[in-house]
Amino acid sequence: MSQCAYPEDAAESELPDGCGLLHTSRKYLKLKNFEEEIRAHRDLDGFLDRASIILNETATSLDDVLRAMLLRLVHKPDNTEPDCNVDLLMAVLFTDAGTPMEGKAVHLLSDTIQGVTATVTGVQYQQSWLCIICTSKSLLKRHVCISRLVRPQNWGENCCEVRFVILVLAPPKMKSTKTATEVGRTFATMFLDITFRQKLLKTRTEEEFKEALVHQRQLLTVMDQGPNPSLKNYSISSICVQKSHQPLQHKDFFPVGKGIREDFARRFPVYSLDFTDGIIGKNKAVGKFITTTLFLYFACLLPTIAFGSLNDEITYGAIVIRGICDDYELDFNTFYAWTGLWNSFFLALYALFNFSLIMSLFKRSTEEIIALFISMTFVLDAVKGTVKIFQKYYGISHGNHNADHISVLSLLGLGTSLNTSFHTALNTSLLANPPELTSVSSRSAEHPSRETAVLSLLIMLGTLWLSYTLYQFKKSPYLHPYMREILSDCALPISVLTFSLISSYGFREIKMSKFRYNPSESLFKIAEMQSLSLGAIGSAMGLGFLLSMLFFIEQNLVAALANAPENRLVKGTAYHWDLLLVAVINTGLSLFGMPWIHAAYPHSPLHVRALAVVEERVENGHIYETIVNVWETRLTTLGASILVGFSLLLLPVPLQWIPKPVLYGLFLYIALTSIDANQLFERMALLLKDQASYPPTHYIRRVPQRKIHYFTGLQVLQLLLLCAFGMSPLPYMKMIFPLIMMAMIPIRYKLLPRIIEAKYLDAMDAEH
User: Fold this and answer.
1) Which of 156, 521, 730, 753 has a CA that sits 20 to 30 A from residue 366's CA?
2) Alpha-carbon dihedral of residues 568, 561, 376, 757, nearest 10 degrees?
3) 262 phi and psi, to 5 degrees?
4) Helix 660-674 with 603-610: angle, nearest 10 deg
């Protein structure tokens, strides 16, 4: 129990009878976890190195005891506090500091920590010890002094038999794990044990006192034998024992279809609720479903147009795989269909043989590396698009763009971005133009206009600014909370429509770059499967296998991020069943030459976030959001998919009114919002922050700061490795990109434990 009492403008009233105001605040402190919180050991080690221990203190009043403790700190030979003033520190320790009411002030301790026990009759205080904490600007370092009194002293309510006084002093601006409260929590956790306090009473020298402290630390650290018996009456809910991971065995992948049956049995009983929750019953969320559907519609449709536009510029209107087929004189639709069928075949095998269990080997840190890589591809695509606009309209020429050297692995969606195949519904109709329909000469006939380039940059940044501002609007104090939530959920469509109108009507005289559309080919033309040779079919099988690995990792990775424990989803997962459905759906899409689909990052986690009920909480001065519950419904995805289908009727007008810079601003918005909860990005930001501004996260408490930065650096190296292969212009490096993603597993389990202790790795991979 922490008690904080201090006067709040009490002296200003100056009533004749000496009345004033006293502000008292209490809050519960969790016990220090000596097994996981590395700072607990650092606090004790720092105290042992500069021990200030007073044994057999004879003073009887609290003021005299505290003054003796402060004098001990000041007169130490290694004192590093040149401006330390005992009288000033004494004044800060009590509530009557600065009051003009001589002899009438309320003389109470300002900030204390005591042990408590909740009983049927109320709260019982441990009155044999008292921890007093204080912050002062005159201090440069933290100081701890422990005083053992000769006889128990009665210092008022809840302090009737004090034998030990722990005084903790610290500067006000400290790292969140080094504050006076955190140091006090370390020693208060140790003194909570009555057996330990009895042992301290029997010590005769400072060395014996220190040995007792070290022994108590060892008892609190040994968690594999269970909690300390002497602490059985107190809460130890803050202690989180890391469960050992059971390695996968061959029998886990059999019998065939076991995972699918378990997924179906888990999800089928709640299937109907996926359509009725939030619609029928007392708790309705129709408004949230509508705004989420609009968000998902724009988030799926516009990246499809943008990726198609980028591919259009790179390949001059031809789908990338068409160039491969032209080189080897293969029928495009047939080769595409065979590749998709092989991809679906391998995905079905993965689902039947429960291969999704392999994804359990992907730790949180590995998932976040891949997630951050995908976010980086969004930024890279936006930069690429903007650079091309400047090359085209600002009069910058870098020579002819040759489409003859198209990578074979661009089929995997890596030619422009890994996300090319992730957000598709209209690619075929957008990119169906054969190369000869648009010549290079016709493109170069356009006169460069610098106004177009500059305006494109402003429109892109404006779209990013407005969308992200509205996304954060729910945290502002303006308007009604319900209106703030609506504006936040509709941030994407509002910003896209706003800057599309600004670009089309506000600057009508300036020509803007827009995507091209050609409806010359039918969307429902079945491929002639018998027209390929066996060799070509074998080549399609190789490409389909590599593609299936990429789909397998992305599908399961996105599902794992969406079902993360902090999202509090309750209806269960269906990794194997979802993978089988992806295989079945892509089989039909392949036959008709349509783009393949699977779960998309960051759209799926952002979709969960849009359906979540979020609360803001404050811990040690840091504001963070926590999800209370999520509306688990299929209506939003169903509605968004229907709207995407109807969008075919909006081509070319009005969808063609959306300029490319707006789409690139959308890319930046998706990338920015996707890194909100990415711990890798948060830990990278720690390198630029003052230690006093570090958030009180679980890894800050449990892992030494140097180890955190080591781990972050190693993650950055893995991220650069992914970028080297996934963004490389060399085709053979892209070819093995899925294998590089799989190689992250042995790196995490075999290489990293040789550099950083496993317990620290597990702490940083923990969910919270």
Assistant:
1) 730
2) 100
3) -65, -40
4) 70
Enumerate the β-bridge partners of residue 54: 147
| pLDDT over threshold 70, residue 657 | yes
d(Cα 237, Cα 118) in Å, to the nearest integer? 15
Report whether 127 contacts 160 (CB < 8 A): yes
Helices (H), 647-677: 660-674
Q: What is the mean pLDDT of residues 483-511?
A: 87
User: CA-CA distance, 385 to 462, in Å (whole number)?
Assistant: 16
CB 361 within 8 A of CB 270: no
Cα 265 to Cα 262: distance, rounded to the nearest angstrom: 5
Tell me whether the omega of the peptide bond preceding residue 659 falls within 30 degrees of 0, making it cis: no
Query: Which pLDDT belongs to residue 621?
Result: 60
Place of tokens 């912050």: 135
β-strands 122-125, 612-619: how paired? unpaired
For the whole prediction, is pTM greater than 0.85? no
> Please, which residues bridge with residue 630 across strands?
612
Q: At what angle do helices 758-765 and 364-393 cross, to 10 degrees?
A: 60
Helix/strand/coil for 155: coil
624: three-class secondary structure by DSSP: strand
Residues whose CB is less than 8 angstroms from the CB of residue 4 and which lie 6 or more positions away in sequence, other chains included: 24, 25, 26, 110, 111, 112
| Residue 479, phi-psi category: left (phi > 0), alpha (psi -120 to 50), beta (remainder) | left
% the chain with pLDDT above 90: 18
Which residues face 164 on adjacent strands?
Answer: 129, 148
In whole angstroms, what separates CA 603 from the centre of its chain? 14
Helices (H), 616-704: 635-646, 660-674, 679-686, 698-702
Nearest-angstrom CA–CA distance, 728 and 161: 72
Name the residue with tokens 């630029």: 688
User: 3-state class of 94 per DSSP?
Assistant: strand
- What residues contact residue 47 under an 8 Å CB cut-off, 6+ apart? 144, 187, 213
Neighbour-count burial for 629-645, b at 16+ CB within 10 Å, e otherwise:
ebbbbebbbebbbebbe
- What would the two tokens of residue 561 be? 């991020």
User: What is the Cα–Cα distance from 487 to 485, expressed in whole angstroms?
Assistant: 5
Q: In what order do the strands lie in the sheet with 143-153?
A: 22-27, 2-7, 111-113, 129-135, 162-170, 143-153, 53-57
Q: How far, in Å, are 536, 588, 628 from residue 342 at the CA level?
A: 12, 12, 42
What is the C-alpha separation between 97 and 109, in angstroms, rounded?
Answer: 11
First-last CA distance in the chain: 23
Three-state secondary-structure class, residue 724: helix
Question: What six digits make up the tokens of 464?
Answer: 């990013």
pLDDT band at 370 (very low <50, low <70, confident <90, very high): confident
Indicate the helix (H) or strand (E) that contains 67.
helix 62-74
pLDDT for 401 beyond 50: no
b/e burial code for range 163-191 (CB count within 10 A of at least 16 → b): bbbbbbbbbeebbbbbbbbbbbbbbbbbb
**Residue 713, φ and ψ in degrees, nearest 5:** -60, -40
pLDDT (tens digit per residue) in 699-741: 887 888 889 999 999 999 999 998 888 887 766 677 778 888 8
Q: Name the average pLDDT for the chain.
A: 79
- Joined together, the tokens standing for residue 763 give 């702490």
CA nearest neighbour of 302 among 672, 663, 669, 600: 663
Q: CB within 8 A of 297, min separation 6: which ones?
A: 493, 639, 640, 643, 644
DSSP 426-475: SHHHHS---GGGS-HHHHHTSPP-HHHHHHHHHHHHHHHHHHHHHHTGGG
What tokens does 13 get? 């009233």
The helix/strand/coil state of 585 is helix
